[in-house]
Amino acid sequence: MPLMNTAFVPGHCREAVESMAEGPRRDIALAEYHYFSGQPEAAAKAAEPYLTSPDMGARLSACLIYAFANLSLKHIQRAEFARGELNALLAEAGGQVPHFRAAAAFVAFVGTVLLHLPLPEEMPQAESFLPLLPPGLRAFALYVQAHYLYLKKEYAHSAGIVEATLAMGAASYPIPAIYLHLIAVMDSMSLKQTDRAEAHLLAAWEIARPDDLIEGFGEHHGLLGAMLEAVIKPKWPEDFKRIIGITYRFSSGWRRVHNPMTGHDVADDLTTT
What domain of life (predicted)? Predict the structure, then answer.
């Protein structure tokens, strides 16, 4: 996930992608840009050629992007195919070099926790692969760890991870920083700290808006405790409408994977209903 691992000034995301040398790294970064700016069709199209790439970094990234983009497109079989590839790569990673094992664990961790699914048996402890990840990916992995703790209702612990991660330099990496601030909103609302929640939401919005990186807001809408309605909708009504469109599109696909695999009929965690 090269774009996730790139530090750039908000407003210069596309420029950061285009400054990369031609090849898999730039192609995957462009797929990331499409995904995080709410363009799942373009993201899936850009990622698809790398699903069987011999470049394992590109392949892992492509599978992750392709899986989540196809949730929004309601192409559930394609999303499940990509998830299956991620789990297979994780199972095969045991005999690989440590950095490949770390990368495989990272993408499997992301793909599992964010779908609220049980962790695969092959999944190593986060502490074993976090130190091997580059800083941007480590920051996003810590967002996923904080999300995992949020799901366990360990809100204060989750919030502590977010604050520490941001303080240790994650704020320089816009994509992880957006998601870290969003999980902080969720934690703060659960802890009834609405002023703190609003501050984190505005921090995320300040990073995201210059590059239109709005996907995460739509994905997390129902978990943000109506903060989008209170803070974003009055000042940015057109952006809010687009975010809600992402919410409906993403959550529909999300439920079609999550509900059958867990037996839990989640209807409203990620939606406006």
Answer: Bacteria
Mean per-residue pLDDT of the chain: 87
- φ, ψ of residue 34 in degrees (nearest 5): -60, -45
Q: What is the average pLDDT across 117-132?
A: 71
Q: Give me 123's structure tokens.
A: 């999944």
Q: What amino acid is encoded at 121 in this protein? A: E
3-state class of 167 per DSSP? helix
If one compares 272 and 122, the residue with the highest pLDDT of the two is 122
Residue 171 to residue 51: CA distance in whole angstroms: 30
Q: Is residue 30 scored above 90 in pLDDT?
A: yes
Query: 21-50 in b/e burial notation, b at 16+ Cβ within 10 A?
Result: eeebbbbbbbbbbbbbbbbbebbbebbbeb
86 pLDDT band, cuts 50/70/90, is confident
- Which residues, in sequence order, are CB contacts of 148 under 8 Å at separation 6+? 113
CB 182 within 8 A of CB 213: no
Assess contact for 227 and 198: CB atoms under 8 A. yes
Cα–Cα distance for residue pair 51/56, rounded to 1 Å:
9
Checking if the pLDDT of 80 tops 60, the result is: yes
* Amino acid in the structure at residue 229: E
Pairwise CA distance, residues 164 & 168, whole Å: 6
Contact (CB, 8 A) for 270 and 248: no
Q: Which residue reads 């392949």 in tokens?
A: 59
Backbone angles phi, psi at 56, to 5 degrees: -65, -30
Q: Residue 43: helix, strand or coil by DSSP?
A: helix
In whole angstroms, what is the distance from residue 19 CA to residue 25 CA? 11
Nearest by Cα to 136 from 109, 169, 98: 169
CATH architecture, range 13-262: Alpha Horseshoe (1.25)
Most confident of 76-90, 117-131, 133-147: 133-147
